[in-house]
Specification:
The protein is of the alpha+beta class. It folds into 2 domains: 124 residues, Histidine kinase-like ATPase, C-terminal domain (Heat Shock Protein 90), CATH 3.30.565.10; 191 residues, PPM-type phosphatase domain (Phosphatase 2c, domain 1), CATH 3.60.40. 29% of the residues lie in helices and 31% in strands. It contains 7 helices and 15 strands. A 5-stranded antiparallel beta sheet has the order 1-2-3-5-4, covered by helices on one side. α1 packs antiparallel against α2 and α5 packs across α6. It starts with a strand and ends with a strand. 42% of the residues are buried.
């Protein structure tokens, strides 16, 4: 722990952050972003509260750096305004502290109370490029200018991946709008469980009420387990070990009654697996013997699109190839 009594202590805190980040394996850019975030928040603690503390720790999975900056000052009277770039109650401040720090980190939480102080908790996780590679292809129906399919790759906590394929009902601009709306929700709400995430997407589409709905396939990859939930005509396969298949429940998000949801779970290590998610523009006829599983994730995705795309409709393939440890 570093005690902040004066602005000179901020230099020690940012230097410690830089050193720890480099030791963990973060690159030069990420390490400097972490140090900059610590400098911004620690500076605020000294200037606004007079003193504070900075606590560093490594997450339990050894893939993330946790930083907590805490003070016992007056608190932040308007947190929403304080998060905006250019906001400051100090003439000597650039007013970019909270906003800049949040953008630099993967997770950023602020707890503040009038007269009781402020606690900022920040996390930065190592990228997962050493454990997974991705391949993806998404093509619009040849008769339409807009692609009604979307996909999501969301890494979090240093060892988890949320994968999604989204198919807006029909084709064209309205299908694209619905698919993009669902994509934004998934990217923003990844901390929900899969069932809760599907329900949130369904609710949002119903509230908007402008489109026809979407089909959705969601897979959560985490240490020792896979989870999948789907609604509509999407599917997923996991190779090798035969063909472990997942398919969606009949129905459409945002239209008619939401079907009874079911999360399919497999207790297994993801190391060495190739995961394939597709929308209904892809024919579900391939097996492991039909795919170049020894090649890159992108080559696998290209192969599926080239050989199994249907004649009509938007089509999307998302491949995640988990490396062996």
């Amino acid at each position: 722990m570093i005690t902040l009594n004066e602005e000179g202590d901020v230099f020690d805190a940012s230097g410690t952050a830089l050193h720890l980040a480099q030791e963990m394996g973060f690159g030069a850019l990420e390490s400097n972003l972490i140090a900059s975030a610590v400098s911004e928040i620690a500076t605020n603690a000294v200037r606004y509260a007079g003193k504070g503390t900075v606590l560093f720790s490594v997450t339990g999975n050894k893939r993330g750096l946790s930083i907590v900056v805490e003070d016992k000052g007056p608190g932040i009277p308007d947190l929403e305004a304080a998060m905006q770039d250019g906001h400051s109650s100090l003439k000597t401040s650039l007013g970019v502290g909270l906003g800049a720090a949040k953008r630099a980190m993967d997770d950023f939480q602020v707890q503040t109370a009038k007269g009781r102080g402020t606690k900022v908790t920040m996390y930065k996780y190592l990228p997962m490029s050493d454990t997974v590679e991705y391949g993806m292809v998404s093509l619009a129906d040849d008769h339409y200018a807009f692609n009604g399919d979307e996909l999501v790759i969301r890494e979090f906590d240093g060892d988890k991946i949320l994968l999604a394929v989204i198919d807006g009902l029909g084709q064209g601009e309205s299908a694209q709008r619905d698919a993009q709306q669902v994509k934004q929700i998934i990217q923003a709400q990844r901390t929900l469980d899969l069932e809760g995430l599907v329900m949130r997407c369904d609710q949002s589409l119903r509230e908007e009420g402008k489109g026809g709905g979407v089909s959705l396939g969601l897979m959560l990859v985490q240490p020792g387990a896979l989870q999948y939930i789907g609604v509509g005509d999407t599917f997923a396969h996991v190779f090798p070990a035969g063909r472990n298949s997942f398919s969606g429940r009949s129905g459409i998000l945002g239209s008619f009654k939401l079907p009874a949801l079911r999360v399919e779970k497999q207790r297994r290590s993801a190391e060495g697996l190739t995961i394939v998610l597709c929308t209904d523009g892809i024919r579900d006829r391939f097996s492991k013997d039909d795919l170049p599983l020894n090649e890159s994730a992108q080559r696998i995705a290209d192969h599926i699109m080239r050989h199994y795309r249907r004649e009509f409709g938007d089509a999307t393939v998302l491949v995640a190839k988990l490396k062996k440890g």
